[in-house]
Amino acid sequence: MSPRWEAKHALRRYGNTFTPNYIHTSSGSTCILRRTSAIMAEEKTAIPPDVELRVTPPKSDTIRDGQKLPEKTSQDITDKYATHAGDAPDGGIKAWSVVLASMLTTFCTFGYVNSSWGVFQAYYEQDLLSDKSPSTIAWIGSVQYTFIYLPGLATGRLFDLGHFKIPYFVSSCGLIACTFLTAECKQYWHFLVVQGVFTGLFSGIIYAQAISVISHWFAKKKGIVLGIVSIGTSIGGTLFPIAGQKLLSHVGFKWTVRAFGFMVLFALGIANLTIDRRLPPMNVKGGLLNLSAFRNPAYTLYSLRRSACRKTLRFTSLQSRMQRPRSAAYLRAISLIRSVRSMS
Q1: pTM of the predicted structure, to 2 decimals
Q2: Which of 41, 135, 243, 275 lies 20 to 30 angstroms, CA to CA, from 225?
Q3: Nearest CA to 81 among 217, 176, 245?
Q4: Per-residue pLDDT reduced to its tens digit, 45-101
């Protein structure tokens, strides 16, 4: 006797008094029927001897009747951001510690990457990469500068989704490692990959997130705070070139770059301990690249104007450098490098 036949026979015999569940018959087969307790109590019908009623107990994670569904946002996330809920505080110890972290981030990104490249370029032309042309060496700095802006296409979306601390920490470790590895590079492609691609890439990831998090903590004072954050670029642009020129003549190239690495390690260590977001993650429509934003004419014109203005200024600066004689600072850097070579 097949299980299907027994199921049909039970349905024909007891009609609608059964609902789906497990029933073990005398033949050992299983049908998907269950007699409801309400109808059995009403009719006082006994269970036939060849049918054993077995109700599977619910699992611990089963949602029962009358039980409320859990909220979409977990309690952990709610409690995490409940302390700083509401409008931007525009002040306080926590908010200003985030400003300090962002300023240290700009110190280690544009302050180091963009401002110290002149020292590296001059040294590479005279010593490590003397067999390469200046334009070929300049590709290292150009790639490095480009990759600072490129990660912003993805990091903004990741920041909205809540991926902030882990990418920031991993990229900080990557930037520190690349700074120390630059001291060990010997060939041109070593410098292009380590100092050009990866140093610029890791710098771009932490720079974009450090600027974005400011809007979580400041609203009315955001313009002033962003100006304070940009001071880190000026401090790095002043400190790294001077330190590089002084250290090259005393400790050589490797320990000069390692000193830069320790400076970046110290600054980003403090930044990782103090930086934090205030608002919970949000799933903004548009995907990873929200091209629909360009439907706004004002935003499109602003993006084109900013891009064209930046490219025009850099091209004009490049032409003026090619037409004018080399500055006294550049000649002093060349003479310093030559004196280091003669000492070694």
Answers
A1: 0.65
A2: 243
A3: 217
A4: 555 555 444 444 544 444 444 445 444 444 454 455 545 556 788 888 999 999 999
